[in-house]
Fold:
Amino acid sequence: MDRDDWLTDTRISYDTVAASYSDFSRKALAGAPYLRSALALFADLVRASGGGPVADMGCGPGHVTAELHGHGVDAFGVDLSPAMIEVARREHPELRFEVGSMTDLRLADASVAGLLAFWSLIHVPDAEIRTVLGHFDRVVRPGGPVLIGFHVGDTSVLKTQGYGGHPMRVHSHRRQPGQVAAWLRDAGFTVEAQLLIDPDADVPGAIVIARRRPAAL
Structure:
């Protein structure tokens, strides 16, 4: 599958389920103490590194963006799906959201103090990961933290229906924390922490926190 195919499938799928996905995910963090703690830690790291704007990549309906904002972070959201951005703007009118792609990120160099990809890289094929992380490395200022959340595993699953029974066509790629950490190191980040969540579940989750390396002298 080439880039246009999977990007188009992902955009159309999330346009289709935008409203129902927002309803499904609105209270998800309330029952996820480890995820909330990870977001609070990430907010602390942003402030400790000097503060500034933080990009929530693949923000969906903006609920995680709003969680970060509640921790005092100047967070804004970017998502491939125009319908998701419309929902995010409606549900969180005090925050900034824009349509964009992680594969062609239209943010200036070193323009964000931190970056979050919270279960959004799961739809990016392996062949595109280095391109995406190259953009992350470019836009995060030296010393800024990055948090990546994802499903753990070794397979890719095609999702054909979701959230309210609507049709979808998206691949969900499950990855090992060590692989994600290695990709981040190759892209210019120093890995600082890895957290495995629900390790006995059928599909565990994981978070990797890294920091943009200082610019070479």
Summary: The chain has six helices and nine strands. The longest helix spans residues 3-25. The longest strand covers residues 189-197. The chain has one domain: 3-212.
